[in-house]
Amino acid sequence: MPAAARRITDVTAAALRALDFDQRMTAGLFALMAMLPLLSPVLGGSYLLLIGERALIFAIAAISLQLLISAGGLVSFGHAAFIGIGAYGGGIAASHGLGTLSVALPAALGVSALFALATGAIAVRTRGVYFIMITLAFGQMAFFVATSLAPYGGDDGLTWPTRTLIFGTRLLKSETTFFYVILVLLLATYLVVSRLIYSRFGRVLRGLKDDETRMQAIGFTPYPYRLTAYVIAGTICGLAGFLLGNQAEFVSPAYMHWQRSGELIIMVLLGGTGTLHGPIIGALVFLVLEEVLSRLTEHWKVILGPLLVLVVLFARGGIAGAIDAWRRGKAMPAQLWAQLLQRPRQGAAAATDIWRQRASLMRCAGGQAATYWKPYKMAVGRLLVRLLLGAAATINRWRRR
Amino acid sequence: MSTSLIVVQLFNGLQLGILLFLVAAGLTLVFGVMDFINLAHGVQYMLGAYLAVMFYGLTGSFFAAVALALPASMLFGLLLEVLVFRHLYERDHLEQVLATFGVILFLNQAVKIVWGAAPLNMPIPNILSGSVPLMDGLRYPIYRFAIIAAGLSVAAALYLFVNATRVGMLVRAGATNAPMVSALGVDIKRLFMIVFGCGAMLAGFAGAIVAPILSVEPGMGDQILILAFVVIVIGGIGSIRGAFVAAVLVGVIDTLGRSFMTDTLRLFLAPGTARAIGPALASMTIYVLMAVVLAVRPAGLFPAKGRA
Predict the structure, then answer these.
(1) Same-domain status, A314 and A333
(2) Structure pTM?
(3) Does B147 touch chain A (CB under 8 A)?
(4) Per-residue model confidence as pLDDT tens digits over B152-179
(5) Which of B4, B258, B285, B302 is the Cys-Cys partner for B242 at CB 3.0 to 4.6 Å?
């Protein structure tokens, strides 16, 4: 049916036109990733697919951390704990013969959420460096508890008997299916978190990050909002852990090692804070970098370490920031050149004008970013957030007593 | 659970606490004065141990090794400061965390390349080997007493330095309000370098004196770094006194927890259950302690004055 096909292309093209550059890039990114299983037989076999799965899983974790860092201003240095908890939750359920979707997944997410609630209730009371150190300490606590879980392998880790059964079938056994399941979950995470960031809840959270005193003056209590964000991020990261456990069919305390938390922060910063596609790019680049460097030499961390220092010192805004700067830069010289050729003096004046405009553009780029995303009615999401907020407020009240 | 065992473990805990204090003191000063979160501080402890082992190999004398390791670790700390850390003071904590994390990755691996991945050892000097009787049938190694004594004297010296010298006064002023100190005409960059060098030297000293009783291996700094974080969170960031109290508290509680948790649980739980959950609970104790302290006093036990 050529007519139907054309109609589909038209609609797709129209939809693409309606997106801004960042969204188009994200769409392209997802399209590229979706092609990976088709390309993998040509490029490197199933090994490539396994790396791809890991990259997507870490992208989910990095997005959840991005929610905390960019929207909440909460730099968590213990985020890998949730990866481990999600993986242990699913693994322990599976080792008791309960490795079905209806038990293992809720168990993994529930335990992650509970851990986030318990540790967050204390951690979120603090800010800045205290928060970094406390989340680090709680992450280590989870690590040590896992190493002393003798019935579930202790130091050596726990081998999952099987990947999670979906309605009693071994649907996830096929790597291709599993890859697409992860990809869909990543897309869902991306959409949910972006809606969340631009919802009322997210606006309050970002407001609290920018100016806590002002937000308090207009009647918002920071604690429940931050705690809710922490629980949501922890739960999403627990999902990533559940997937990682499924992927490797194994979980060990090393999943929660504090260097893993550091790597998650690297992914977020490497990709670029302040954008949601940043963490996805960051996770992909980091895993590819790890893969390439570790093939080059067993001492690949000697290269990665200074690389990180250089990224921090010279490439502020990460990869997403660099792409943005490149786009601006590419537009500028051409315009300048055209102006300068016509009438030198006016051209020079116009050029300074353009520079001035560029400066003001950059100033309000932050403001514009917010308007791309109109408030979206997501009844279920709101209900969830409201429930969590209620719970957090109850805890807050109880704490005050 | 005999009394003598408790006494021995108390001393072990005190010794761990002293070491923690030496590491945490530098960390809390660097943070208090420069508002700089230095994850690479644990690596400086590790380097102190490696440098001591190296100098021991060269000189054959324990005391010469420690004496040489001190200026060497200070120089190394200053080198790092000039190359990397200096450019990070103005940045936000997230970037500081990431860059110093990169330094950790690099140095841990570089140490592996230079000295190999296998743990190294360093003998206890003759004059400090052997043990002394504490009470009937209870002997305690002299070397551990020496560590406690050395740590306590360094703590006392540090206290005098911070509270009775002009530089110490500037350090205290810097911890309270660094921009104001700078506005009053103090060369804040030089002050930062002094503080940083001292912090690196203290961590290196801790590493050097602990080298004979621990195996010196890559990554040995990470463990103590996290404990030092717990210490300065409990003690209050920027406070030397807080760091001391919290370090001893954490050292003693952690050691006692690891030694007696399982036996204590056995009093009211089945032996099998106690053996299963004892180690897990023991490794959680200091974090629970931290949570309790923060629940009561969010800024730690002894917050530096003027700091929110």
Answers:
(1) no
(2) 0.80
(3) no
(4) 999 899 889 888 899 888 888 887 777 8
(5) B302
